């Protein structure tokens, strides 16, 4: 948790609870039903022991007792003893059945509220994560967002659940205490003599088990990450014969996992032991003291409303039932804190300012060929370190331009500004003189088809991968785009052609094949500006040449922006921008630059000495 989240935690407790409840505000009829069902369960629990108590006190005796509850039960029963016994059995049975039904309905409503409420939280969070800009996502590990979505999203329901559960526990505890006090004050205090131990053991074991479970979960997550990394590194470890080292790391991780689980299991097993010991102690106290009270009130010096065997049975039953409410009360603070922290982590992301978003009055800009201009653009990833300085360039519709320069000079950063993955710190990027910050994001991005240096391949069919940006494309259109990108031949060689399913990240394709699919994907899109970041880096000379020919055929129909440090790819561009240390230092055609730009000429000479150029053919537009 970073500093901002800590500040949020310190300042804003009330809002977290309000916001957690707001996710369930439409569910209030279900919550009301849930509370009613909990009431039924609690009521059944309180009355469960009464049929036996009444049987002993009022039926299987020559001296029937006449408390108000006895009277109420007996009024429901026939006058004869066998009828009364059968009646009490039936009442006991009914109580059990009602209890089970209420419990079942209660559980299902609980699951329903939990799953749907958590789904709403997740939907909000997922949509927000989609809206947040790249700077946010690149500033933290991917696992962080995944954890917030999968685990922290349960926080709001956890808060509601704990609040309801604790309120019910408090009511149960109070009613139980009142009933016990009404029967016998002394025995009630005797029964409650074990309450501090119950509270203590619940608090202690609750904390310990929670802590151990968290540790164990973290160790298991580390183990999973470790196995995943080891599998990714497999080719490396086999090449460098580091299998024993990897195995040792794996064995250590498994060892930590086993130790963590054993520590958790130890606490889990100690807990019922402590609980049973305390309950046995409580039962012994009630049996001993209560037994003596019954003997005193019934045999030694009988009194009309003295202690009875039936009341003793009820005390014994309530002692067992005391555990649950006291558990809720004892664990309230630790549990609510856990869920509150989880909910805060969710709300923190939901409150994250969206740096890249539509202005309230953002204008519509239907995609069509437009002039693209950088007006004195400066930009840095952090406040203190600019990577682009006063970049000034205009690209006419249908023009094909190249940005070249050594690695790290800011070429890719410039492309990211076009799609508003980031905004410039000074100057503006414009489409037809409109600042792109004033345009609706979806309209702006519809102008561009972007091929990244390492484009993502999805674990789905080749056809779906190509059609990702244009899902309605026909087979013929997909085929045509693949042909333009030089991908048709290798796709046909795949076991199921266009229906071949790619593995995760396109691992069953070569780098060049993945790049051609990415290019086909961009070509299939109808965007008027085609932006390609190092599109030929993984292509062999024939395929590089094929792509350049394709781009030349597209010229005039689409604007093409090519970023590369392979000058062979840009020699036939209408204009080439040479970049150095975040600035455009020269611009012009290949021939002009060879004559006028020392930087370009030197890059060209280096490239000439490194590799033979692919066969050059001048093509018509
Ligand atoms: N997400 C980022 N956060 C911080 N700095 C970054 C980020 N991406 C790039 N940079 C830095 O910005 C500078 C320009 O990087 P950029 O990727 O734009 O260069 P490039 O010219 O495209 O390089 P290459 O040809 O190697 O792809 C580099 O110094 C790089 O370290």
Automatic annotation (TrEMBL):
Gene3D superfamilies: ABC transporter type 1, transmembrane domain, P-loop containing nucleotide triphosphate hydrolases. InterPro entries: AAA+_ATPase, ABC1_TM_dom, ABC1_TM_sf, ABC_transporter-like_ATP-bd, ABC_transporter-like_CS, P-loop_NTPase, Type_1_exporter. Residues 32-338 form the ABC transmembrane type-1 domain. One of its GO terms (molecular function) is ATPase-coupled lipid transmembrane transporter activity. It is a multi-pass membrane protein. The keyword Membrane applies. Residues 372-606 form the ABC transporter domain. The chain crosses the membrane at residues 28-47, 85-105, 157-179, 185-203, 273-293. The keyword Transmembrane helix applies. It comes from the Bacteria. It is found in: Cell membrane. GO terms for cellular component: plasma membrane. Its main location: membrane. Keywords: ATP-binding, Cell membrane, Membrane, Nucleotide-binding, Sugar transport, Transmembrane, Transmembrane helix, Transport. Pfam families: ABC_membrane, ABC_tran. Belongs to the ABC transporter superfamily. This is ABC transporter ATP-binding protein.
């Amino acid at each position: 948790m970073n500093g901002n989240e800590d500040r949020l935690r310190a300042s804003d407790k009330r809002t977290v609870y309000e916001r957690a409840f707001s996710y369930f505000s439409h569910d209030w009829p279900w919550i009301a039903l849930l509370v009613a069902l909990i009431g039924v369960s609690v009521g059944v629990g309180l009355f469960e022991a009464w049929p036996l108590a009444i049987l002993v006190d009022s039926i299987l005796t020559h001296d029937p007792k006449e408390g108000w509850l006895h009277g109420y039960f007996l009024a429901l029963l026939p006058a004869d003893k066998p009828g009364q016994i059968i009646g009490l059995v039936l009442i006991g049975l009914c109580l059990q059945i009602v209890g089970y039904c209420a419990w079942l309905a209660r559980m299902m409503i609980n699951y329903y509220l939990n799953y749907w409420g958590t789904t709403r939280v997740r939907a909000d969070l997922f949509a927000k994560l989609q809206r947040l800009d790249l700077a946010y996502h690149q500033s933290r590990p991917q696992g962080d967002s995944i954890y917030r979505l999968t685990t922290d999203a349960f926080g709001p329901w956890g808060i509601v659940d704990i609040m309801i559960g604790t309120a019910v526990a408090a009511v149960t505890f109070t009613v139980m205490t009142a009933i016990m006090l009404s029967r016998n004050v002394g025995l009630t205090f005797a029964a409650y003599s074990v309450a501090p131990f119950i509270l203590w053991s619940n608090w202690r074991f609750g904390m310990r088990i929670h802590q151990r479970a968290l540790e164990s979960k973290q160790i298991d997550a580390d183990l999973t990450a470790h196995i995943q990394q080891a599998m990714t590194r497999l080719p490396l470890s086999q090449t460098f014969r580091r299998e024993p080292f990897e195995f040792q790391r794996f064995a250590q991780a498994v060892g930590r996992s086993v130790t963590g689980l054993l520590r958790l299991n130890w606490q889990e097993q100690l807990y019922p032991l402590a609980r049973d010991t305390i309950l046995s102690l409580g039962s012994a106290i009630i049996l001993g003291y209560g037994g003596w009270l019954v003997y005193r009130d019934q045999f030694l010096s009988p009194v009309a409303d003295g202690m009875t065997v039936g009341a003793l049975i009820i005390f014994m039953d309530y002692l067992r039932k005391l555990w649950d409410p006291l558990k809720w009360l004892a664990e309230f603070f630790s549990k609510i804190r856990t869920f509150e922290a989880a909910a805060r982590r969710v709300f923190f992301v939901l409150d994250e300012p969206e740096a890249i978003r539509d202005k309230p009055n953002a204008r519509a800009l239907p995609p069509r060929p437009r002039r693209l201009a950088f007006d004195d653009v400066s930009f840095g990833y952090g406040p203190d370190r600019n990577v682009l300085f006063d970049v000034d360039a205009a690209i006419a519709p249908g023009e094909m331009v190249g940005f070249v320069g050594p690695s790290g000079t800011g070429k890719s950063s410039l492309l990211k500004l076009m799609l508003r993955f980031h905004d410039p710190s000074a100057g503006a990027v414009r489409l037809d003189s409109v600042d792109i910050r004033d345009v609706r994001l979806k309209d702006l991005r519809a102008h561009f088809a972007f091929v990244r240096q390492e484009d993502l391949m999805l674990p789905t069919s080749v056809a779906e991968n190509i059609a990702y940006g244009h899902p309605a494309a026909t087979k013929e259109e997909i085929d045509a785009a693949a042909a333009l990108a030089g991908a048709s031949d290798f796709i046909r060689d795949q076991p199921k052609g266009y229906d071949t399913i790619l593995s995760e990240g396109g691992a069953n394709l070569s780098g060049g094949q993945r790049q051609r699919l990415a290019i086909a994907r961009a070509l299939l899109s109808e965007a008027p500006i085609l932006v390609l970041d190092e599109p030929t880096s993984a292509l062999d000379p024939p395929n590089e040449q094929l792509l350049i020919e394709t781009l030349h055929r597209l010229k005039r129909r689409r604007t093409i922006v090519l970023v590369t440090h392979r000058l062979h790819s840009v020699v036939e561009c209408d204009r080439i921008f040479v970049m150095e240390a975040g600035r455009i230092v020269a611009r012009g055609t290949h021939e002009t630059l060879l004559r006028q730009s020392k930087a370009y000429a030197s890059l060209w000479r280096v490239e000439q000495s490194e590799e033979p150029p692919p066969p050059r053919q001048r093509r018509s537009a």
